[in-house]
Design a protein that fits this description.
By secondary structure, the protein is mostly helical. It has eight helices and three strands, in the order H-H-E-E-E-H-H-H-H-H-H. Strand 2 and strand 3 form a beta hairpin. This is Zn-dependent peptidase ImmA, M78 family.
Amino acid sequence: MDIPALIQNLYLSHGICRPEHIDLDYTAAKLGFEVHYIPRRSCCLKLAGKYELIVDKRQNRSVQRVHLAHEMGHAILHTGDQTEIVMWGRLRQEYQARNFAFEALAPSFMLQSISVLSESLSSLSERFNVPVEWMYERLSSCPVAVAEEKSEFVAL
């Protein structure tokens, strides 16, 4: 599955084209997911054929957004009961959900329109409303940011 294309199509079809437009609660509702903020570990459950996304309300808002995006990734990308999967399969699903969260919260198509090297990590973190450490991981895994960094390096 082409996650960047999926996110871009989903967001643009709902008029989401700037970081401040990313509202995961709205997007989850549009996809038919119920989101519950309660004091327990974040997870994704399928009950009576409907996805319930549990987000730990004890976390700060930017961490909650990361958890919600991650759990949305599980709901969209995976089927079945994760507890019945062998360890390598579970690790693969976690990796996929992490990549979905990267794309959902800091989409490639939005990063392409920003000169990521000209902004500080904390500025990008604030713009996308995510933790600084998470933004660092996102940029480290993002072909757009890596390509820009390489072209900047070559230009020196």
